[in-house]
Amino acid sequence: MAATRSPPGAGRWERLFAPHLDAAYRLACWLTGSRAEAEDVLQDACLRAWRSASVEPRDAKAWLLTIVRNASLTRLRRARGTNIVPFEEAVRDLDRAQATLPSAEAALMEGNQVAALRHALAELPAVFREAVVLRDIEELSYREIAAVLDLPIGTVMSRIARGRRQLRAALTREGFDVRDTG
Q1: Has residue 93 been placed in a domain?
Q2: Rg for the chain (alpha carbons), in Å?
Q3: Do 115 and 54 belong together in one domain?
Q4: DSSP track, 82-125
């Protein structure tokens, strides 16, 4: 019986990119609005990263998220005019993963806040949504976001600030007390 061997570079790929697959999938969900589309995008992105075996990125997470972003945008451009599942599907999946809260009342209150925030985030223009998601959900630095979006850091900071302002305004309209924390 022949021993199975991993393809060349498999260990390197796993070391560099496997820790960031969850973040890549979440970003693909937010950008495409569909779990199925996000899975396809992630598969395309992983294949592209695998094919670039000779490249040693300085920041593997930012590099992978850049590939995911580009693959998402390409897929969305091709899919214009077709029926893509709305963001609500991705939001429902994220809500299912939410941790159990101590009481039913707290769960209802937290669930309403989370749902309102996710809805407001999904309604943001894409340029603000991707910047806010990368900063506040994926916790990338401004420099990493600038690399992913291929933008100057000042533009990244502006988009995050504008996106957060729009989120606060939307949540305030929904009756939530939202304070500016910085």
Answers
A1: no
A2: 18
A3: no
A4: S-PPPHHHHHHHHHHTSPPPSSHHHHHHHHHHHHHHHHHHHHS-
Is 3 contained in some domain?
no
Q: What is the dihedral of CA 120, 136, 29, 50, to 10 degrees?
A: 160
Q: Which two tokens stand for residue 115?
A: 């749902």
pLDDT of residue 152: 95
Confidence category of residue 40, pLDDT binned at 50, 70, 90? very high
Lowest mean pLDDT among 111-120, 131-140, 141-150: 111-120
Would you state the structure tokens that stand for residue 1, as one six-digit string?
A: 């019986």
Both 78 and 102 in one domain: the answer is no
Domain that holds residue 39: 10-84
Q: Which residues contact 147 (CB under 8 A, 6 or more apart)?
A: 59, 62, 63, 66
* Separation CA 107–CA 20 (nearest Å): 29
Q: How far apart are CA 109 and CA 133, in angstroms?
A: 23
